[in-house]
Specification:
globular, two-stranded antiparallel ribbon, Rossmann fold, P-loop_NTPase, 40% helix, alpha/beta, 488 residues, Arc Repressor Mutant, subunit A
Length: 488
C-alpha cells in the first residue's frame, strides 16, 4: 500500500507529495491566521488519509463533523457525555479501530479543555496490544496547550496541557501521530510546538508569530516578512515528510464542506420599513416585569444594636445543644459520602465536584451547610474509597494507616488505604482494575504505575508467587494481603 498522499501543488513546480509513514513518525504543526486556509488544509489531509489510517479529530468548533457522512467517522458530542465516558471512549476507539470526531462545539473553554484531556488520556493509556497508528488532529491547539494561564481554571489547564504534551512528546511509541493547528504560535506552549518535525506555515501578520515561524523553518529574520505575502491556501512547507528545504505549496481542493464556512458576500438590500420601528419597538408585556426598587431601612441607633445583640446571646445560651450523638453524626456523614460515590460516575469525578454534591446532601439531611471542611472531606473520601466502615475507622490500626497515608499525595491516599484495608481484613490483594477505579481512571496501566510508585517510595512491597498472584505488604506495621490475581 502506498503511503504517499498529494496535498496540492508546489508553487512553480509539480505535485506536493507528503509521506504518510514519515508523518506518523515525526508529527506536524500547522500555523496560519484566521482566513489563511488552515482548516481547508486539515480537511485536505483528513480526506487524503481517511481510507489509509485511523483518525481522531479534536474539533472545538464542529467544523469536521461533515466527514462522518463521507468517511464513516463516529461523531461524539462532548456536551452529552461525562469526562469518564469520554476517557472510556478514547480507549475503545483504539481497541475497535474506529475514526472519531470529538465535537466540542457549544462548551465553554474550561469544559472543552477537561473533556478533550479525558478523551486524549483514554487514547494514551490504552494497553500495548492496541497501539495501532492513529492520526490525531487537534484544531485550535492554542486552546488546549496555552503558553500562559488564562481565564480557565488551573486544574483544567494542567489536565489539557498534560494530555497535549503526552500526545506530542510520548505519543509516537503508542502509535499516536499529533497534527496540531494554531492561529497564533506565540499563544501555543513551546514544549508542545517544539516536538513537531514537519511544518506548514500560512499567512501571518504579527511580528512575534512571524519570528517564531521563521525560527522553526530555519529562515533568517529578514525573510520572515514573506509570511505576510502568502495567498490564502498557500503554505511554506518543511520537514522529513514533505521537503528537506522550505518550499511554498498550494493546497488542493476538498470534497466535503464545513458546516461553519465563512460568510459569503451577497448583495445588500436594506429594509424598506422604518428602521426605528423595527429596532426600537416596545417589548411584549411579559418581558416588562416591574421590579420595585427596594430601599434599605435606616440603620438602628447604637443602643438598639447593643440590646438586640444581648438578646441574641441570651437565646444562644438558652438554646439546647445539638442532640445528635457524635458517633451517629459520623455514621450519617459516612452514609451520605457513600451515596455520592455510588452514583454512576462518582468514582471518576474530581474531589471538588464530589464535595459540592456532599454538602447539598448534608443540608437536606439537616447536618448544616458546613458539615466538613474540604481538608476533612478529602480524608473522609480516601477512607470511603478504601471501603472502610465508620466503626473500623476508629481502631488504632486504622489510625496508624491514616497516619502513613497523610505523608502521601492526596490522589494516592485512597490507593494506599485500600491496600491497608485488604491487609487488615485478611483479604486478597485488589486487582489492577479495582485499583484504577479507586484512583478515578479506567486505565489498568496507570494502576500498575501507581503501585510501582508506592513501592519506590518504600511504602509497600509487592511480591509475586509462582502462579503469578500478587501480595502487597505495608512497610512498618508489616500487614500483608493474601495473594490475588492482578488481572482479575
Amino acid at each position: 500500500m502506498s503511503s504517499s498522499i498529494e496535498m496540492g501543488q508546489i508553487v512553480g513546480g509539480g505535485p506536493a507529495i507528503m509521506n504518510l509513514a514519515e508523518l506518523l513518525a515525526t508529527r506536524l504543526l500547522v500555523q496560519g491566521n484566521s482566513g489563511s486556509g488552515k482548516s481547508h488544509l486539515l480537511r485536505r489531509l483528513l480526506e487524503q488519509t481517511g481510507n489509509l489510517v485511523q483518525q481522531a479529530i479534536i474539533d472545538p468548533e464542529g467544523d469536521f463533523v461533515s466527514l462522518a457522512e463521507a468517511y464513516s467517522h463516529l461523531v461524539i458530542d462532548a456536551a452529552e457525555h461525562t469526562e469518564a465516558a469520554l476517557q472510556a471512549a478514547g480507549e475503545r476507539m483504539r481497541v475497535h479501530r474506529a475514526s472519531v470526531v470529538l465535537n466540542l462545539e457549544g462548551l465553554d473553554a474550561d469544559l472543552q479543555m477537561r473533556r478533550a484531556a479525558a478523551f486524549l488520556g483514554g487514547m494514551f493509556d490504552v494497553p500495548r496490544a492496541h497501539w495501532y497508528p492513529v492520526l490525531v488532529i487537534v484544531d485550535e491547539a492554542q486552546l488546549f496547550a496555552p503558553a500562559s494561564a488564562g481565564e480557565v481554571s488551573d486544574e483544567a489547564r494542567r489536565a489539557s496541557l498534560g494530555a497535549m504534551t503526552n500526545l506530542m512528546c510520548r505519543g509516537r511509541k503508542r502509535g499516536l501521530a499529533g497534527v496540531i493547528a494554531t492561529q497564533r504560535l506565540a499563544k501555543l506552549a513551546k514544549n508542545v510546538a517544539a516536538e513537531a518535525s514537519n511544518f506548514l506555515m500560512g499567512r501571518t501578520f504579527l511580528d512575534i508569530d512571524m519570528a517564531r515561524a521563521a525560527d522553526l523553518l530555519g529562515m533568517e529574520r529578514r525573510q520572515a516578512e514573506a509570511f505576510r505575502d502568502l495567498q490564502r491556501g498557500n503554505f511554506v512547507a518543511l520537514g522529513p515528510a514533505i521537503s528537506r528545504r522550505p518550499m511554498t505549496i498550494r493546497v488542493g481542493d476538498v470534497h466535503t464542506e464545513s458546516r461553519s464556512a465563512g460568510p459569503v458576500l451577497a448583495p445588500f438590500s436594506p429594509p424598506t420599513e422604518q428602521v426605528a420601528d423595527l429596532i426600537l419597538a416596545p417589548l411584549p408585556e411579559p418581558e416588562l416585569i416591574a421590579r420595585p426598587r427596594r430601599t434599605a431601612p435606616p440603620p438602628p441607633d447604637l443602643l438598639t444594636q447593643l440590646a438586640s445583640h444581648g438578646e441574641t446571646l441570651s437565646d444562644a445560651e438558652s438554646r439546647p445543644e445539638d442532640p445528635i450523638d457524635p458517633a451517629e453524626r459520623r455514621q450519617q456523614l459516612a452514609a451520605l459520602l457513600r451515596e455520592v460515590l455510588d452514583e454512576d460516575d462518582g468514582g471518576f469525578r474530581p474531589p471538588a465536584s464530589l464535595y459540592q454534591d456532599f454538602l447539598v446532601r448534608c443540608r437536606i439531611a439537616g447536618l448544616g451547610r458546613e458539615a466538613l471542611d474540604m481538608r476533612s472531606f478529602r480524608r473522609a473520601l480516601a477512607t470511603a474509597r478504601s471501603g472502610t466502615t465508620p466503626e473500623a475507622a476508629e481502631t488504632p490500626e486504622w489510625q496508624e494507616a491514616e497516619a502513613i497515608a497523610s505523608t502521601l499525595p492526596e490522589d494516592m491516599q485512597p490507593v494506599f488505604l485500600t491496600l491497608a484495608r485488604a491487609a487488615l481484613d485478611g483479604k486478597t490483594c485488589p486487582p489492577d482494575r479495582d485499583i484504577a477505579r479507586i484512583y478515578g481512571t479506567h486505565s489498568t496501566g496507570r494502576a500498575r504505575r501507581m503501585l510501582g510508585w508506592l513501592e519506590e517510595q518504600n511504602i509497600i512491597v509487592l511480591r509475586l508467587d509462582g502462579a503469578g498472584r500478587r501480595r502487597a505488604a505495608i512497610i512498618g506495621p508489616g500487614w500483608e494481603t493474601l495473594p490475588g490475581d492482578p488481572g482479575l
